[in-house]
Protein: DOMON-like domain-containing protein
Organism: Sphingomonas hominis
Amino acid sequence: MSRYSLTPHPDHPPLGVRGVTVDLRMIDGGAMLLNYVVDGAETAVWPERTSAVRSDGLWRTTCFELFLMFDDEEHYVEFNFSPSSAWAAYAFDGYRDGMAELSRDLVPHVTRIRQGVEVDCDLGGLPHGELLMSLTAVIEEEGGRRSFWALAHPPGAPDFHHRDCFTARLPAPAQP
């Protein structure tokens, strides 16, 4: 298991949230288990539970994200996981270009836990090999204030799609 600590964007500091950590564990066959934990979760706004459906715009409130970039450092995928259990998955040809929905066969299982979410996500349909990775979160707090958390931030406005955010490596999954 690997643990990652996210940092808030300096121009959008949180009110009461003190930190966001992500525990990642790879499971045989290309699946991963992610635990996003919010320190100070009592000040966060948690979306109401819904059915586990694909939904756009999840980042407008508390949402947890995973970005994976392929060897060519152009193509990447984005996963959004809402505490409501809604999710989204997109593929991009390049930086914010050529966005398309990933296969509807891919359905991550998102479970709200006391201070965040647990996500079981099958990555078996993605290319094999080591991938560049970015872990991010948008945390809405009381009063509508949002903070933007990432492993690293590029200069300027929050931009989770920027290459500078991809600072971790996801090892190639073990093959059965």
